[in-house]
């Protein structure tokens, strides 16, 4: 059975020198930063960035991350982070594919899961806030689950 994709978003960036090792290959820990950069661009596009989340009374920590390195990214390379938002009701789960921006060659696959946590109490929320659901539905590619 195929997973439902609520919406898609892409973000491009160029690999900076300070992200690579002596062989000009991106150090593995920097991929998490690229996912965060793409995720922040998505959140800004729906008007629900981390400042707005806090204003709504929730923090959204990463509770799970998975990375699969396929091919290395290198200094100066332009990459595209393609995102598929696959869960929005009990958490925020995103599937990512990092590709070479010019060729489309797949470099890395990843998933992140974030859970809503009450800023006031620190307790995990098992239902995402209505304000979050309203915001994500504003994304131009949003599709309701059937």
UniProtKB/TrEMBL annotation:
Xref: Gene3D superfamilies: Hotdog Thioesterase
Pfam families per the UniProt record, alphabetical: 4HBT_2 (PF13279)
Domain of life: Bacteria
Similarity remark: Belongs to the 4-hydroxybenzoyl-CoA thioesterase family.
Database matches in InterPro entries: 4-hydroxybenzoyl-CoA_TE, HotDog_dom_sf, YbgC/YbaW
Alphabetically ordered keywords of this record: Hydrolase
Gene Ontology molecular-function annotations: fatty acyl-CoA hydrolase activity
Protein name: 4-hydroxybenzoyl-CoA thioesterase domain protein
């Amino acid at each position: 059975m195929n997973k439902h994709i609520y919406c898609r978003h892409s973000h491009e960036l160029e690999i900076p020198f300070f992200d690579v090792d002596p062989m000009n290959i991106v150090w593995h820990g920097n991929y998490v930063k690229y996912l965060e950069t793409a995720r922040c661009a998505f959140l800004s596009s729906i008007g629900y960035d981390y400042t707005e989340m806090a204003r709504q009374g929730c923090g959204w920590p990463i509770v799970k991350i998975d990375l699969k390195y396929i091919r290395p990214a290198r200094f100066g390379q332009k990459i595209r982070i393609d995102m598929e938002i696959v869960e929005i009701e009990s958490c925020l789960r995103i599937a990512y594919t990092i590709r070479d921006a010019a060729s489309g060659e797949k470099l890395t696959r990843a998933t992140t899961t974030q859970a809503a946590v009450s800023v006031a109490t620190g307790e995990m929320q098992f239902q995402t806030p209505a304000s979050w659901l309203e915001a994500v539905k504003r994304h131009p590619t949003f599709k309701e689950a059937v």
